[in-house]
């Protein structure tokens, strides 16, 4: 009887997940044939329904505190001959990220209502497909299915940037597609390799993440794991993006329409960090331990380098875009601390970054809709015109730079603390390879972060009021001849230079509330993340021990080198 | 003794197509427009008839009697040829002789039996498809050679058939002379294989090579003969080093013929390739010692693997890098065709253990993508000419949203974006390469997939992203609807087929059923 209930419950859960993924697909199909004027309404309804389905699932999610996966792995067959399935399920980490996605999408859709005036059906249709594929990627428990979701996100994003983006939109979309497509092929190659190895040594086919992870981490030799981790890191690093392969991101962010930037920063980049957390770390602990220092050096370089670029930016949107690179450096650093504190912080940071950076892009987009200028040399002191906007701008800036009491602080602190204690001290439960040096250098990034973000607030929000002249105004709208009808916006009923409308405030309030909640009471979220993180990192203490024993001097040398690099 | 009547019965699909080709050649000369317009229909009916005939005659006893090296290859292969053939007929329908037929319809030209090309075009199309089918059930080298010639000879004429411009004639001449050269090389290889084995029958040839290997390895003549054959066949595949003709010929030929050229010679060439390689076998016979014990070495003999490896890698790189440099639609698609041959060669190198099945799965996907892409392009015209630049496609989304959608789907499928069919077929191919121990080749394939994305994205960019320009404003759809129908069916197929992936993988794996590999023969003989 109890079993039956459980089975029925599991069935219901499965259906709720599929509902949250398929409702947007169905919405896209309806939008394709519906009236253009109805598109935005349909998209809003579809995205809210998807959020509802996922929230209902989360409400009775049984594995919040256990770290397990629900529903149980398994699913209907997809490619029977190699046992690929349509296996879906969440653990608390993927569920939190999926909830973030489901929360951001209605905000993106409703936030686009006034910004997107042409080709609306296509726009909202692509947005719905983007939503479905991101959710599919987070929900997938089968690596091939994850690949499908992960890769398909590129197509809607390509169109969203290439059609509704800024003046250099085509170049930006091309670069985005080619960079991340190449990266994901590394990832595809790696998982096919692991699947083949699994079959070669056990005689069975499996593409389940859990099965493959435990197989790869225990049965593959250290050398193979090294290359496996390197390939997976190369694949996901493009998406994160880590330092040398980050160049597509600022361009894409800057050219994307507001909602595109929001979702790009909010959850698409998280697919990269999630991939490293979900696949690279558990599959190849030997490789992870061997490459942790290398990756951490890249992260710290990114933190400092991107922060310095931010400092000299005059374009508000570009500044926030580069700050993403810097912030994700800290996020990844926490992950490579290889202890539960750092990894917990890292996962929390993924969520926080999605909330606060997403909100910042939204706010900059709102100002852009009114002035069609993002350059802080031409525009500033907007608090005098838009006090409500200024309030939110300051609020999310504080959240982004990690003011205690807001969400950013918790994640950032845990990441850096995790890095700090990740020393080679064998007496701790989780010896690490990084240590105080990395934490201090990355901590400098925080100070720089506070400086450039306050600079943004100081010039863009406060200070003397500078508004572009009316004629330059039209010109700018024309430069970006991408569907924004500059003059129409001027004469629109709410678009003058007035403060935020009720709709816009309504978009920002939920984000602000979540930020506040996580900042004041992060305990339930950290508790939910904890068991999953511990499970992921279980093979690491032993692997790190081996890495420490093999070349202690080399590690120190690299650390010293890293410090010098960053100082230089 | 081979029962002749059984062999003839097995040829029923080919006979149906042959009879139909004679019929359309006559019907096409009719004075009545109505009768002439029946011609494509007759082709479609004949192709469906050949699939039904194939089902009816393909019984185990008959296959046994036919003594084929790959007894089950024909079942899957001929079905694919006929199905894609229907798509290719639809892409052609109405466009080859459009100008002349319109002139006749408007009374501007009188009917002239010497000028009307409809009948001969479709007759040659069907004959070429017949050749492709014949190749798949060849029991000996002569049959194989005649089948290959029957594929090629009609296509030389089809390239020239739209007697409109010099480019068409130039393309036909280039294609013919280079084709003759390649045929010569193939034939030379066949002669050496005959010299090495003393027989033309494929199964006895394999047995002779087994015996050779058992007493100290394959003769050099056999290996050189195989390599020459492979190089000659590269012309049919449009693979390096015989790929030079492809961009010029694809560009010069009328669009529907280009579509035909990028599929039919390719599937015939690949079938011939695996038939010839099947004689040598994929199970390391050179490593059999005198006691008949097989030393574990998988794959074709080393020199042949090395040649194929180089051909595959170079074909992928040259195809994709060449594609980036093009501005003409048809030249871009020619390089795409070259690159896709490179991908499929990976499957050939891996062999019967998954590789050939994956290759035929990819071939199906490639055929569907070809029909979809060319169907869209054939449905468009500008000032009565076919469109051949990315500029002409700009803003297609606004003028013809469905065609733009279909072109996008097929381009994304060619790039390899999941869950479209092209991507999944490619994943199976990569996977098989890993499984067969060719990890480097799998890496090359993945890298090339990324390079290919650069030029396939241009189709997407032109059709969906770019605004309409002066040139593309003049682009209209053609009056006949068949290319559109072909594009719709094929484009939706790319979206729907992944749901049946499991079955298609199994079906394509049946192509190697009943093939007894070299090493297995050795093993069974040493047991005796």
Salient structural properties:
heterodimer; A: 568 residues; mainly alpha; two-stranded antiparallel sheet; 23 helices; 75% helix; globular; disordered N terminus; B: 528 residues; three-stranded antiparallel sheet; 26 helices; 3 strands; 74% helix; disordered C terminus
Explain this structure:
The complex is a heterodimer of chains A (568) and B (528). Chain A has 568 residues and is mainly alpha-helical. Chain A has a domain at 286-568. Chain A contains 23 helices and two strands. A two-stranded antiparallel ribbon of chain A has the order 1-2. In chain A, strand 1 (77-79) and strand 2 (84-85) form a beta hairpin. In chain A, helix 6 packs antiparallel against helix 7, helix 7 runs antiparallel to helix 9 and helix 8 (209-219) crosses helix 11. The radius of gyration of chain A is 23 Å and the shape is globular. Chain B has 528 residues and is mostly helical. Chain B is 74% helix and 2% strand. Chain B is built from 26 helices and three strands. Chain B has helices spanning 4-10, 12-27, 33-36, 39-57, 60-66, 73-92, 98-105, 118-136, 141-161, 166-197, 202-214, 220-237, 245-252, 255-280, 302-324, 329-350, 355-378, 390-393, 396-399, 401-415, 421-435, 439-465, 470-473, 482-496, 501-509, 518-527; strands at 380-382, 385-386, 475-477. In chain B, helix 2 runs antiparallel to helix 8 (118-136), helix 13 (245-252) crosses helix 16 (329-350) and helix 15 runs antiparallel to helix 16. The radius of gyration of chain B is 23 Å and the shape is globular.
Sheet of most strands of chain A: 2 strands, antiparallel
Give me the side-by-side strand order of the main sheet of chain A. Answer: 1-2
- What is the typical, i.e. mean, pLDDT of chain A? 85
Q: Approximately how much helix is present in the residues of chain B?
A: over 70%
| Chain oligomer state | heterodimer
Query: What is the number of strand segments of chain B?
Result: 3
Secondary-structure element string of chain B: HHHHHHHHHHHHHHHHHEEHHHHHHEHHH
Using DSSP, what is the number of strands of chain A? Answer: 2
End-to-end gap of chain B? 24 Å
Coarse shape of chain A: globular
């Amino acid at each position: 009887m109890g079993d039956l209930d459980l089975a029925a419950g599991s069935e219901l859960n499965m259906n709720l997940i599929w509902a949250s993924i398929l409702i947007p697909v169905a919405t896209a199909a309806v939008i394709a044939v519906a009236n253009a004027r109805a598109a935005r309404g349909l998209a809003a309804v579809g995205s809210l329904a998807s959020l509802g389905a996922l929230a209902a699932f989360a409400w009775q999610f049984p594995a919040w505190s256990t770290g397990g996966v629900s529903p149980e792995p398994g699913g209907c067959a997809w490619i029977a001959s190699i046992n690929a399935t349509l296996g879906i399920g969440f653990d608390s980490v993927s569920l939190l990220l999926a909830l973030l996605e489901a929360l951001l999408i209605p905000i993106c859709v409703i936030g686009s209502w006034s910004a997107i005036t042409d080709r609306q059906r296509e726009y909202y249709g692509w947005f719905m497909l983007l939503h479905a594929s991101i959710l599919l990627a987070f929900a997938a428990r089968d690596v091939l299915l994850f690949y499908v979701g992960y890769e398909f996100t590129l197509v809607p994003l390509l169109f969203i940037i290439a059609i509704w983006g800024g003046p250099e939109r085509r170049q930006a979309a091309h670069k985005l597609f080619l960079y991340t497509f190449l990266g994901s092929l590394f990832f595809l190659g790696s998982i096919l390799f692991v699947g083949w190895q699994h079959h070669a040594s056990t005689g069975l086919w499996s593409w389940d993440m859990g099965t493959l992870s435990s197989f790869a981490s225990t049965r593959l030799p250290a050398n193979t794991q090294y290359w496996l981790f390197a390939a997976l890191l190369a694949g996901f690093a493009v998406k994160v993006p880590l330092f040398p392969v980050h160049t597509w991101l600022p361009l894409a962010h800057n050219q994307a329409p507001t909602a595109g930037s929001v979702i790009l920063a909010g959850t698409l980049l998280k697919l990269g960090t999630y991939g490293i957390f979900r696949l690279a770390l558990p599959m190849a602990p030997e490789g992870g331990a061997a490459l942790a220092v290398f990756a951490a050096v890249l992260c710290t370089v990114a933190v400092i380098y991107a922060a310095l670029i931010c400092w000299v930016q005059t374009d508000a949107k570009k500044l926030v875009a580069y700050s993403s690179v810097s912030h994700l450096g800290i996020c990844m650093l926490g992950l490579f601390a290889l202890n539960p504190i750092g990894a917990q912080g890292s996962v929390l940071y993924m969520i926080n970054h999605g909330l606060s950076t997403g909100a910042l892009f939204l706010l900059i987009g709102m100002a852009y809709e009114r002035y069609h200028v993002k350059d802080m040399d031409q525009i500033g002191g907007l608090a005098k015109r838009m006090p409500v906007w200024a309030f939110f701008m300051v609020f999310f800036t504080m959240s982004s730079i990690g003011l205690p009491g807001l969400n950013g602080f918790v994640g950032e602190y845990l990441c850096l603390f995790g890095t700090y204690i990740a020393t080679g001290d064998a007496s701790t439960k989780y010896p690490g390879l990084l240590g105080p040096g990395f934490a201090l250098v990355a901590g400098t990034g925080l100070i720089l972060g506070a400086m450039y973000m306050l600079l943004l607030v100081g010039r863009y929000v406060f200070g003397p009021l500078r508004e572009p002249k009316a004629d330059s105004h039209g010109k700018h709208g024309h430069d970006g001849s991408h569907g924004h009808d500059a003059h129409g916006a001027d004469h629109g009923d709410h678009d003058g230079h007035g403060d935020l409308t009720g709709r816009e405030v309504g978009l920002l309030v939920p984000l602000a509330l979540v930020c506040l909640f996580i900042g004041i009471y992060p305990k339930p979220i950290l508790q939910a993340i904890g068991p999953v993180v511990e499970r992921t990192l279980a093979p690491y203490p032993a692997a790190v021990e081996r890495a420490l024993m093999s070349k202690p001097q080399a590690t120190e040398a690299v650390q010293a080198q890293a410090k010098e690099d960053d100082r230089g | 003794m081979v029962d002749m009547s059984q062999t003839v019965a097995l040829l029923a699909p080919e006979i149906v197509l042959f009879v139909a080709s004679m019929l359309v050649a006559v019907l096409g000369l009719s004075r009545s427009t109505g009768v002439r317009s029946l011609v494509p229909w007759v082709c479609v009916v004949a192709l469906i008839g050949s699939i039904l005939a194939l089902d009816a005659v393909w019984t185990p006893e008959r296959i046994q009697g036919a003594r084929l090296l790959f007894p089950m290859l024909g079942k899957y292969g001929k079905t694919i040829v006929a199905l894609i053939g229907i798509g290719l007929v639809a892409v052609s329908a109405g466009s080859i002789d459009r100008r002349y037929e319109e002139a006749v319809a408007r009374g501007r030209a009188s009917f002239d039996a010497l000028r009307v090309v409809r009948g001969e075009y479709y007759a040659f199309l069907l004959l070429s498809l017949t050749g492709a089918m014949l190749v798949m059930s060849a029991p000996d080298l002569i049959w194989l050679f005649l089948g290959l010639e029957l594929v090629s000879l009609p296509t030389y004429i089809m390239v020239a058939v739209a007697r409109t411009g010099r480019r068409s004639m130039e393309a036909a001449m280039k294609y013919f002379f280079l084709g003759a050269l390649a045929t010569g090389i193939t034939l030379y290889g066949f002669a050496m294989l005959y010299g090495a084995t003393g027989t033309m029958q494929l199964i006895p040839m394999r047995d002779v090579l087994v015996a050779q290997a058992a007493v100290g390895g394959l003769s050099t003549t056999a290996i050189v003969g195989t390599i020459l054959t492979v190089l000659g066949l590269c012309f049919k595949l449009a693979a390096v080093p015989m790929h030079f003709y492809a961009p010029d010929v694809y560009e010069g030929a009328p669009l529907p013929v280009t579509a035909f050229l990028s599929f039919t010679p390719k599937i015939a060439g690949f079938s011939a390739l695996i038939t010839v390689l099947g004689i040598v076998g994929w199970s390391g016979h050179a490593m059999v010692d005198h006691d008949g014990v097989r030393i574990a070495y998988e794959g074709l003999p080393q020199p042949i693997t090395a040649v194929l490896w180089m051909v595959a890698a170079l074909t992928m790189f040259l195809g994709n890098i060449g594609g980036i440099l093009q501005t003409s639609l048809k030249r871009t698609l020619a390089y795409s065709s070259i690159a896709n041959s490179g991908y499929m060669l990976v499957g050939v190198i891996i062999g019967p253990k998954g590789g050939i099945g994956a290759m035929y799965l990819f071939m199906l996907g490639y055929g569907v993508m070809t029909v979809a892409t060319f169907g869209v392009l054939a449905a468009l015209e500008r000032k009565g000419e076919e469109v051949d630049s990315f500029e002409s496609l700009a803003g297609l989304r606004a003028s013809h949203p469905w065609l733009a959608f279909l072109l996008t789907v097929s381009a994304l499928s060619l790039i390899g974006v999941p869950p479209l069919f092209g991507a999944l077929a490619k994943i199976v191919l990569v996977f098989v390469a890993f499984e067969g121990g060719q990890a480097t080749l799998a890496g090359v394939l993945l890298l090339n997939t990324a390079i290919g994305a650069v030029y396939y994205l241009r189709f997407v960019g032109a059709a969906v992203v770019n605004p309409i320009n002066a040139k593309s404003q003049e682009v209209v759809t053609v009056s006949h609807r068949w290319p559109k129908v072909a594009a719709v069916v094929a484009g939706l197929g790319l979206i729907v087929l992944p749901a049946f992936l499991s079955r298609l993988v199994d079906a394509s794996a049946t192509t190697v059923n009943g093939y007894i590999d070299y090493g297995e023969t050795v093993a069974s003989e040493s047991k005796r």
